[in-house]
Amino acid sequence: MARHSLVPFGGSPLIGGDPFVSLQRGMNRLMEDVFRNAGMPAAGAEGHEVGMLMPQINVSETESEVRITAELPGVAEKDVDVTLDDDVLTIRGEKRMEQKEDKENYHFVERSFGRFMRSIRLPQSVNRDQVKANVENGVLTIVLPKNAAQEKTRHIPVKSGQSTGRDTSH
Predict the structure, then answer these.
(1) CB within 8 A of 91, min separation 6: which ones?
(2) Mean pLDDT on 95-104
């Protein structure tokens, strides 16, 4: 009785013959090339940018306001721009690398530097004149009071066995 390898395509996974490992490596190289060519830093890219800056954001809501918090450690207040266009809130900014007079030779850099932008569609209309933004301890907090003139959600009861008033004889 002949023995057949259980590894697909006859390769040995310990010797590098696994086509899935080869495919994964190829996809990783492709993604690094895409990000590098799009002007976005890839992990391990040359220069000081190690990864894409993407602030972590929380969006919460109470009866009277929508509150957005964004983690922006190391970003100065003057480097943050918040805009509200219709129902889309946009946070833009830049985290700058500290520059010293004496030259430093880095062995590697894990901290990210560069520009970032996040846009969030708001769940409901807000009072634009009362929006407030504050940065404290590396956290940006934006408070957006809800527009009182907007109609609240209306619950529509569902009943069975009653006509909706439509003529269904056609």
Answers:
(1) 55, 57, 70, 80, 81, 82, 116, 117, 118, 119, 120, 140, 142
(2) 68
